[in-house]
Input
Amino acid sequence: MRITLSMRERKNPYIPVEAEKIVPSILMKGTDVTVYEGNKERRLADLFEITVEGEAASVDEVEVVLRGDTSRVKRVGEYMDGGRITVEGDIGMHCGNFMAAGTIEVRGNAAGWFARELRGGTVICRGNAGHYCASGYRGEKKGMRGGKVEVFGDAGDFAAEHLSGGEVVIHGDCGDMAGVEMRGGTLTIHGDCARPCGNMTAGTCTVLGTVLGMIPTFERTGEIVGPDGGTLTAFVGDIANRGKGKLFIRNFQYLE
Amino acid sequence: MIYTDMVCPFCGCLCDDVVIETEGDRVVRVDNACTLGTHKLMTTRKDRLKGPIMRDGAGGWRDASYEEAIEYAAGVLLDADRPLLYGWSSTQGEAQGLGVSMAELLGGVIDSTTSVCHGPSILAIQEVGHPGCTLGQVKNRADVIVYWGCNPTEAHPRHMSRYTTYADGFFLQNSFRERKLIVVDIRKTETASIADEFVQIKPGGDYAVFSALRAIVRGRGAVVPPTVAGVTKEQLEKIAEICKSAKFGAFFFGVGLTMAPGRYKNVRNAIELVDELNRHTKWTLTPLRGHYNVYGSNEVFTWMTGYPYAVDFSRQIAFYNPGETTSVDILARKECDACLIVASDPGAHFPRKCLEHLASIPTVLIDPAQTVTTPLCRCQIPTAVTGIDASGTAYRMDGVPIHMKAFLDLGYPTDTEIVGRIFEKVKEVRHP
Amino acid sequence: MNELLVKNAYVIDPINRINGEVMDIAIRDGRIVEDVGPKATVIDAGGCLTLPGGVDSHTHVCGTKVNFGRYMSPEDMRAGRVARRGVKHATSGYSVPTTYANSYRYAVMGYTTLLEGAMAPLEARHTHEEFSATPLQDMMANTLFDGNWGIMNAIRDGDQERVTEIVGWTLSAVKGFGIKLTNPGGTEAWGFGKNITCIKDEVPNFGVTPIEIILAMIRACETLRLPHSVHLHCNNLGNPGNYACTVGTFNQVPDLNEKRQTLYATHVQFHSYGGSDWKTFCSKAEPVAYTVNNRPQIVIDMGQVMFGKTTTMTADGPMEFNLYRLHHDKWSNHDVELETGSGIIPVYYRRKNLVNSVMWAIGLELALLVKNPWQCMLTTDNPNGAPFVKYPEIIALLMSKKYRDAEFATVHPETGSRVVLPALDRELDWNEIAVMTRAGQAKALGITGIGKGHLGLGAEADIAIYPIRVGEVDPAQEYRKVIDAFSRTKYTIKRGRPVTRDGEVLVHGENTTIWVDPKMGPGHDISQDTEFVKMFDRYYSVRMSNYPVQDEYLKRSLRMETEAVF
Output
């Protein structure tokens, strides 16, 4: 089953749309669901042109395709438990939050809190991801717990904050403080980043580019060979927090 | 007339020992207040609007009646798909409470100036808690004071004389001599010039310095490099030693910390340093809050909605996510389609992009005087100033609630009255 | 004139010695009366269990510390999120819900009167502001005196009269209800990061001991003729072996009041621990209950722990720091100058954890071992032991051995060797539950005279009708039905007006704040005392004239005036 949602032109394209119902397991049962545009409840069909092709026996046979300007559509794929969502353009905040299984692919950019508190499944962004990619929620100790997040462009600040399980791969650069408060899982940054892994207690972070503003409370333990065959400096930390996380870095500079 | 024990409606110190002398409805003398407070109290009538103003359709202003302005305000809020209700820090708690109820019924976003000052402090507290105390506790006990990323001499001029450096207390009879003062900042401020220890940090280096101090305090100083963000390890070790040997330490910080790169992570690291120090001796931490009742907005919002600021009611439940539901972010993304600003001046503080959006949507300002925000609005409704011609509740930066007293009657309605009347109009349309 | 008639009510009203009579209750203008006219609104209780409105004599729902619990816990707010609807505000939160959430949930469970367990006088205004936003219950605030400098100085100087004067003035100024002592002396010691281990330790810098504070406050309380007794959170909360301190404290309490207890000891579960460390931790509910059974001057509340997530909050600042060191989760602390302190940390009580399992058992043991239900109130020290929404489960546990055994089978396997719970066969009856959840609480608080906790003529028409017919249910076997019934009333009536029906909130509500105003007569006004004024001027950070809570903070105010007899 293939469900295509094409965003209609809106009078005010800046008003955010909250659409947590855009999940394969819900839409396979019918597309007469409601979403919110600001504080107004709308039918999905009011905002999207909907076409449904084929049938599905299980959620894994469902693909939802989003087309048009979906950069303000939030919470797509929330609690997703199977199937596939393809976003042809950009996607709004909280895409894939709490997702447990299935695949989301965003061909454009993803706004903030991409794959927040992910539990399982695969979430891919071909463009750039905003701040708090693969992070947690305010006040919670644990962020993402499982699954895989892959960003082919850059990620903003606080990527993988509170990461406690699963795998996060950023092919481009990260902003400030990736992996801060990490307590499990793995984070791999192919590009550069600033101040990664402050206060981490466990987990593994690998930075194949250059780290600026290296946190001064990681203990240098030696060198290892990185996934790309090059040498990486190994650290343990964050010592400020009795941490035993592993941090592997190609190049680094302290703020002296 | 002479009024004693009056409460100053300027900063979060909420000094309540101010003496005000009036002649008619003019203030002729103010005692005990600082220069900032005195100025506010002495110029009570400066720039005050006589009555509501609205756009005249030709780029100018015309006078309007309260009824008309209130009707207009209710109308634009009711018409909006994403109304924003911003400000709330220089007003009475009673108005804040009504604002929350109105936002709830409208399905709007309500946010206070917290989001551009100590919002990051709150985010940090939500991660690790807050070891705090009332300011009198500091006055009576603290023998080590830290001011980090703040300059109380200029921003909170009586903070040092009422609560810290110059304030004698029960356990410190000669405070100035018996207290150690540590100042940490990126530049040598006036406060720094009287410090026993001044630590000058490179901009953006706060986080690293906290991490280093934490490691040193817990005996792992060996990992710390010889200099951290421009501070020598030697000095860091000295600071750690002073902190550990305090009988009672009090840590204060300002927007120099909350708005530096890393924002709430800086504050979190400060809190975790204070937590660590509590394993050795007693330490507390207090954000130096700016507007006199900004902390009150956090208190009122919290007991009503569960969250201290940036609350989004668009789904009729309370949703909170600073970065998403904060005013600056909403304006920068052009999300809101109407805005009510109460008792604050975003025109003077917000990024240009945000102000452009404010000017492009129906924005109503409730504020006693003409401000930088006025030109961005379509309607302004003047009200009485709490602590001058209106009474009401405010919360000091340490959470102590204080009743603000009025000493003049200039005939203006209070914020509570105006917000209440707008709310009544909203209720007529959307009766709960 | 507003009239209501509740027909066919199966009434249990322990104060009026009514134990299961089917009757009609007539109500006029918020009070219970002999009869009403034919135009009265009629509610048919259909033979369902009808009790006086619930009274919680120790809960934390309003004020600085509670709000800080909310403020620091956005993750807690994600639970219990309900949209605004009709007269209801949006609500959020599970263990530290918004004021409206507290109010609605208590009302749905039939509770109409709450005592906030701890109000710092300096921050009283805040508590009163939140009372106004807790609209479906009448509220009162226990006022903290555990580290009060003026009082400790007066005790050291042997000046009991001065102690009484300070208490009287303060209660009146802050519109408090009763005297609360939280870890007396310990909160002052915490001012410099220290604590007190038991009643004989000297409070640093003040030269008094906790027991001197407790006894002086008991004398002050009785001199002022306060409706409620001294309300004590004993020293050394939460530590293995602390039962000895608890029993030692109880044994020092004289019997001074004919109408009620002389000491109310709160959340005694947290104070009934044996062992010398966490490895040897065990229940000492038996010696504690034995002491209570032999001392009618003491009333306790359970402070029951239930498994799951909650937030602990108390004026006992040093104890919270110790908890923080155990859990290493977030920690807040808030010392209040010259008066008291407080601390907050989130906790998760786990069945798989031996200490938590033993704690769970101790609360139940206390309730089952204290023979007289008028001496043991049902509480969780909300939210410290568990959020109050767990009360129905606790009621069912006390009424059903079968339920206790079923639950016991799920806790840590070693629990059996540390507790006596499995050996206790007692099953409480409906009347005893009514005592422990309203009648006894009202009596202990001294508010039966203003019409609380009973359904006699002239009483406040606060009534809870539960959807259960006593004759048709065996609580020992059908405990699920008991839980369901106590979770959601058919009707909750507050001051003669139905405020909830089948779990739906019907009105905005308008509550009353009950406070005590002791009259001490000429020569006893401490606010005129030069030394007292000097202390205020020099050491407080607010002016004395700005300290009292203005009348306008109480929307509806019920002032209980007392005459002190020096």
